[in-house]
Amino acid sequence: MKIQLWKTLWLMGWLMSPSTMAADSDSSEAVSFNQHIRPILNQHCVACHGGVKQAGDLSFVYGQDAAYVVEPGDPESSELIVRVTEQDPELRMPPPEHGSALSDDEVETLQAWIRAGAEWGQHWAFEPPRQQELPVSEDLSWSRQRVDHFVREVLDRQGLHPAEEARPERWLRRASLDLIGLPPSPRERRRFLRELKQDGESAYHSAVDRLLESSAFGERWASVWLDAVRYADSKGLGIDGRRSIWKYRDWVIRALNDDMPYDQFTIKQLAGDLLPNATLSDLVATACHRLTQTCEEGGTDDEQFRVEAVIDRVNTTMQTWQGLTFGCVQCHAHPYDPIRHEEYYQLLAFFNNTADCDLNNEAPLIQVPLDSSREAEAMQLDTQISVLQREQWQSGLSLLTQDDHWSSPIGLQASTNNSTKVVVVDVDEVPEYQTQGTVARGTTVVLEAELPDQWKQLTAIRFTGLPEQEDQARIDSEWGFVISHFKAELLSEDGQATELPVTWVHADEPEPILDPMLSLDPKNSNGFGPFSRMNYPRQAAFMLSEPVSLTPGSRLRVSLAQNVFLQSAFPLVAHRGRLEVSNDRAFTHWLASDERQQRSAEIAALKKQRSDIPSVATPVVKERFAGLARPAFVFDRGNYLNKRDQVAPSTPAFLPALGNETDGVVANEGVERESTVSRLELARWVANTDNPLTARVAVNRVWAQLFGIGLVETQEDFGSSGDPPSHPRLLDDLAYRFGSDMRWSLKTLLRELVLSATYRQSAVITPEKLEQDPRNRFLSRGPRGRLPAETIRDQTLAISGLLNREQFGAPVHPPIPEGVWQPFQGGDKWNTPAPGHPDRYRRTIYTYIKRTIQFPMLASFDAPTREFCSSRRLPSNTPLQALMAMNDALFVEASQALAQRMLDNRKRPRQQLRYGFLVATCRAPEPQELESLLQLYHSVTNEADTSPADANAIDGGEGAGGKGAESGDAASESATEPQEAADAAAQRAGLEAVAGVLLNLDEVLSK
Amino acid sequence: MTRTTIEQEAAQQTLCWQTRRHFLQRCTTGLGGMWLAGQSAHGSKAQRGTHFPPKVKRVIYLHMIGAPSQLELFDYRPELQRFDGKPCPQEYLEGQRFAFIQGTPMMLGPQYEFKQHGQSGAWVSERLPKFAGVVDKVCFIKTMQTDQFNHGPAQLMVHCGQPRVGYPSMGSWVTWGLGTENEDLPGFIVLLSGGRQPRVGNALWSGGFLPSVYQGVQCRSQGDPVLNVSNPAGITRDARRQALDTLKDLNQINHQTFGDPETLTRIAQYEMAFRMQMAVPAAMDISDEPQSIHDEYGAEPGKTSFANNCLLARRLVERGVRFVQLFDWGWDTHGSSKAESLNGGFVDKCRQLDRPATALLNDLERRGLLEDTLVVWSGEFGRTSMAENRGGMATKFIGRDHNPRAFTLWMAGGGIQPGMSYGETDAMGYQPAENPVQLRDFHATVMRLLGIDHERLTVPFQGLNQKLTGVKPARVIDEVLT
Question: Are the CB atoms for A249 and A226 separated by under 8 Å?
Fold first, then answer.
């Protein structure tokens, strides 16, 4: 049985194998490496001679590593041929235990290739796409757009005929659902049909223009992008708490509506923060890579999850923009594609130095104005504040860092307030405290020392917290520390303690996540420190408002309260600490300088002004201060705890070199080349026309949305283990033009596609075509398929008239079945607005997305959970979808509203049903269809008529609420008699039953 | 690309296509009998085959969320008692990472009395008096290991073989590989108790990159047992039937127009849904069980409890459900509060476990179901031999931290050596002294019992032939099989 099944599947697999799928390339050509040779090598050889295993130092993945087994022009003396034709099983390749011998055909193909010179070819997708010559088709009149010529060429070769053109209204519905995710309203339908009558063909063009101009366009296409960049409103792993990042979702919608060119769209998301003169919305765009999961579970290591997020950024970037499955290279070289293990970490190095580090507070955050028209104003303030703060920091920095300002106090003693043990040790002749054994939470380290003899005054105190193992910490960070409260006292000889007036904390980093000044606030546990993790020793100067005079024999006591306790597990206490003191008046002068005071005042005023702009804190990508950069390493077998060689940022060698971009100005301030290679250069490299993958992957994504299957079916894998394109020439031509003529405009691309003859075909499947082109990969008919989850819901709302077209803003919480919402955090509520409230009927893109509790409607219609990058949805057809569409509150409420809409718009039942059908399907029903609906209507009304109680029950059913009752009153105004009221109720019950059927029609759920 | 890859690729690519073919052959004889579209694709009853003769047909998995302490239940370590209150030896701590333990913690002896039970002489603590009576049906593995020490990732390891979300769970793999035996019920059902969802939620019963029909379906004891399985208020079953007839008429007209086989599948799925509306509530309603059964399990109709779920598990496997996954929340005994302590909440949890788990084994056996059903019990990792000292301080309540190095799992049912214990931990119960078993070995073993070769049930995804057991070598634990 099993063998039978496999055999069938094998055959079908073969039918779809590369040679048959590459339908538009010329099969009469000589042996091509990519088309003929690589598949043989991949099938028989690369398991042992590939990227992972390179037995005998032979790899067929990297061409140069296979040169020694191939003698160009001379198959007989090529080791490759000798070994595959060897009769001795001991010597034959592949060895019998690894696989069967090559077929005669395959051997002949290899021989022919070697005879012809054994030219090694780059995998097709790694060659730049080229504009193609238009194929000459016999029937030129069919093609409407450039793409059609390529499609027709394949159809002709397959002996298939295109289907006739779809009825105009069917095309209108298809295009409308594809472009804006909503069906045409009856008015839009009438307008289109009228224009068609008057103006003919141009009606199609103006309909497409209207759709592309609609603000709904971005809402439809955003969901495609959000799948790829794994957008969710929750944090993921562990507790999956709420994350406020919807400003990014709005950014995507706006960018799409504005038709932002795809290269700009790319650069802003990958490196908007590094753009010269970045706007606030450029910063919001970087939230793209803050959509990674964070882990708030107690006892989890922030560094582990920071690294996982960085890895996810690499994988998502490569899959979303480059169509490459990169996950495997985390642990070893790619088995099929020429991507080496180190190259993964060279890519990772671009992303390794961002400031975020799996913190529960989601830092770094920016305040994004709720009113987007205030963004420029807000950004200007932010920039001013940032510039001033940097200046302030810079001006005091030398005071902190120049060692000649500082002296060690004498006879350091250390103690703590709890069970944590500390000792004082001299390291390189510098005294420091060190903790011993278990460090308890809430530790205050108390340091006491004498001040240098003859000192008359004290002006500042410097604290340095050090990693336990300085050298190793640079590679593997240690848990950090936070000085929650810094208290300095002078102890007189008689034991009198006087608190010193510390007024300024100057830290060693310009814009730390926690404000160092908070160390002076005893009520706040935050303050100076590296926070969660540290790679380097960290220091800060605690300056006194004015010099404090010293009396002989007085001692200094510094109490360092370190109260931050992370993830219910990790006390952020410095394990080693040094104290130094200064009597230099430079501190006092600096503090008292007009310049500094003025800046401080200015900063405070600007901050006040800024805080008056109502804003929402949004996580963004921000580069960490260069002085504290984390070095990047190769992880042995992908494990971040086993670091190997250090690596610098770079792109994989098999793709065009980095930095050749012609359209971007690389900031070069006379610094060495390495140090200027940032995420921005990476972004420009991705968004460049020289990159062979970017445009191909992008147009393929769009193609798949319109036609159901991508030209490359494995949208996530353009590498050699993915599927070859069904129409390579079409894909190349389209990709080339997308980056050039179309100027990366998504709308231009879509306009051409939906106006094409290919797209305008009828979706009728003849039995012959079902046999010859079962999955429509040759495009012998128009696209048909179940709508995406979001479109089903939005369409249901639109048809019923409930849809609220309000745009943007914080996520909404439409009804979900009881018992579904059981978040880990009890306080995380799903507050559904009451029936009638507009937020119940917003477009699905605005629904709150929680990763661990998927919105049931989206889950059952195949939306991904948005944990990771998802390049395509695999459609299913299940009974759970049927239960959802028949019984879910949304559909019930929508059928009641649609019934009402039928009642409001037409008088007689037959007209009402016709109207409802037209609203739902964008066409008038055939007589047979109308009869069927009427039959249902009559049987329900008759039944309801004889038992009015039942009908009332339906009417009063959950969901109709005030809205239904209100308009019901209007409809039955004249129904003064009980019988008439019962009639009205029966009528409504009949219409609701019909509406329920209409919303569940296969035709309605499909495009 | 190996031959298998291409076959598998074809298998995946042609799921829908197979369905259509299948359907076209059958649609003239009526639309009944179609279960979830994809399931028939991989093998309807007629086509289905296994790699080996299966020992069991179905699985009930009892997962104690939070990780119960093996040292207070099944892994008796008298030596540990001698070290109670003494500092932990440094060799246990070097190079190890813990969730909450800081510095040098103190050892913690077993908190409860242990006795040997049954013919097999299995050690069971006084916390499970009833279960002690059925130990001869059970095989204990005391040296389970995982590489994750936080709950979320570790739970994913147990069910999906990967610490990340996005991979198919065991139940999905199994239903994908074997299909279902009851066309009116989902093949993979999830039941929750303990008052809270597992923290990674439905990722634990996700279908991952398998078609979505193979993801687990959560059934509930309160409200709709399956989402939207009830008709809206005021809609009778007859009314629904009428509407469905009309829907079918119109969809058939649509099929005549477009000839899309997917339309026929949709018609069939609506019919299936209609049957589920009867079958699911009937299966989930335990009130028709005799009082003696309720008493035996400690079940109470209308409540959500582990006891009810055990009884439901029996009813579901009885009806041919392939994989029943139970999650019971509340076993994370850190000693950080009364509810989360070995001397507090743990006692209650043991009481909630003892009676129903025992009843389940006895009941399955009485009905002859145990011989071809596999029952598994486990947490996601074990607990340390040391007392927890969260934040570097001793805690008021008694508890243990997470220990990924050793935990106990038991199995019972077809193909399993009854009355056996496999693997020994060291004297402290901290890590295996012999025969460590990785989760992937356990996965391979479960698959083997179901007649599946874990190396051959693969699906290509992200350039790799993905399988439940992952890329590291996994072995079937032949020693525990009959």
Answer: yes
